[in-house]
Specification:
Beta-xylosidase; TAT_signal; signal; Immunoglobulin-like; 9-stranded antiparallel sheet
């Protein structure tokens, strides 16, 4: 059966309206929230469905890109929202359009430290549009995984409107001069995994040639592990191997013959690496050299203590921010005092990780908290404290401060950090709290 005239006219009206929804103008663009991404204008070339019977339309689109995390770490997944702010000035016909007939899809172009496109899509949802009434804006979302550190720019890309009203029709619009202007930028940082490997010894001393048991935890499941003696910062010829179980732990034995040994290490790979190793654990080879006739051996003991930390309080009140503006909520970490009285060759590392900030209005992600560490070494301390890098703390953790391995380590240290929580502009009002956990190893 052939189509009647009114039916054809209705179909053409529908396709014309789909085109009009994508031939956006720059005037009357909605303002972005303070602190959010910037609205940008760019030329678009829209191709109406054949049934519309009209030529392609070259117009101006106003759009904005927003993200859920402006300071991600490499490996994080970022959610992107592409909003066409004002699809059309008005409905150019007297025909009322029903609700929920428009399904948008599109692309967001990445630039800078990372390239490629992010595929975005929106729900089939729109308010009814009366004849000659204004078209609503629409949003599309998608995700991408951060693969490189640095500034990553996001620009609006090509998009398409699919309408489901009487007919299924598509109206694709492409950027005339790509890429479109940058609407949002995220700054990605490298994520350095925290080394949780650790070893304990069955005994802290022995005669030359004695075997010492070594227990390790936190290693890569199934990995081969080398056990070795250390003389200060130099590895000795004493060596053995073990294999980590499915839980990352192992039990091995090392025969120590070198009389200069002061510690024992365990590591993955072909050579010692602080990133893939544990220790040194203090070990002393007992001197069994006979005393000559007419001589006396005089012995004293300097007892090694513990590695410990204390903090000047357990609560930090960050500064308030305004709804609609958001931004940096700042404060200072309660001073942490580290005492390393072990007297061996091993340094230490103080790391921290934070939970999401929860409140009545929802959550602020852990990745929004950053810090600027500082560390001071007390006079006379054998070791020198190193402050961690400024950057994101997050739920995976970051280093606050550390001291290196050495022939003799130890001392007293004070550790501080400036804190800054990047609060999104329209976070619901209320109190939000997270827990920052510090680990000394």
């Amino acid at each position: 059966m052939g189509l009647t005239g009114p039916t054809i006219r209705r179909r053409r009206l529908v396709s014309l309206l789909a085109v009009a929804a994508l031939a956006v103008t720059a005037s009357g663009a909605l303002a972005c929230p303070a602190g959010a991404a910037t609205n940008v204008d760019f030329g678009t070339h829209c191709i109406p469905p054949d049934i519309a019977g009209i030529p392609p339309i070259d117009g101006t689109t106003t759009a904005a890109i927003t993200v859920d995390d402006r300071t991600p770490e490499v490996g994080d997944t970022v959610t992107v929202t592409y909003t066409v702010v004002k699809p059309a000035a008005s409905n150019p016909t007297a025909l009322d359009l029903p609700a929920d007939i428009m399904t948008p899809t599109g692309k967001v172009a990445l630039g800078g430290a990372q390239s490629g496109d992010v595929t975005v899509a929106g729900p089939k949802k729109n308010d009814p549009v009366p004849g000659y009434g204004a078209f609503p804006s629409f949003s599309m979302t998608g995700t991408f995984k951060v693969t490189a550190p640095g500034a990553i720019t996001l620009s609006p890309g090509d998009y398409n409107i699919h309408t489901s009203y009487i007919l299924e029709l598509d109206t694709p619009c492409t950027v005339i001069t790509p890429p479109a202007p940058v609407s949002e930028t995220v700054t990605a940082t490298s994520s350095t995994p925290v080394n949780n490997r650790a070893i304990t010894l069955g005994s802290a001393s022995g005669k030359p040639g004695d075997a010492v048991t070594v227990h390790g935890t936190g290693f890569t499941p199934g990995a081969g592990v080398t056990l070795a003696g250390r003389s200060g910062s130099t590895q000795t010829a004493d060596r053995a191997t073990a294999k980590a179980g499915t839980d990352g732990s192992f039990d091995g034995s090392l025969t120590v013959s070198d009389r200069s040994t002061t510690g024992i290490v365990a590591y993955e790979g072909s050579a010692w690496s602080a990133d893939l190793g544990a220790g040194p654990a203090v070990y002393t080879v007992d001197d069994t050299t006979p005393v000559p006739d007419g001589s006396q051996r005089l012995t004293t003991t300097v007892r090694g203590g513990a590695l410990s930390m204390s903090q000047a309080g357990d609560a930090v009140q960050l500064s308030a921010v305004d709804f609609g503006q958001g931004g940096a909520s700042t404060g200072a970490l309660r001073t942490v005092t580290v005492k390393d009285y072990r007297g061996g060759p091993a340094g230490w590392s103080l790391t921290g990780k934070v939970t999401d900030f929860s409140g009545a209005g929802g959550k602020i992600g852990a990745g929004k908290l950053s810090w600027t560490p500082a560390c001071t070494t007390a006079a006379g301390s054998p070791s020198t404290c190193r402050a961690g890098s400024a950057g994101t703390v997050g739920s995976s953790g970051a280093t606050l401060a550390s001291t290196p391995d050495g022939a003799l380590t130890g001392g007293r240290f004070t550790v501080d950090a400036g804190l800054s929580l990047d609060v999104p502009a329209f976070t619901p009002p209320g109190s939000y709290a997270g827990v920052l956990t510090l680990t000394l190893s």
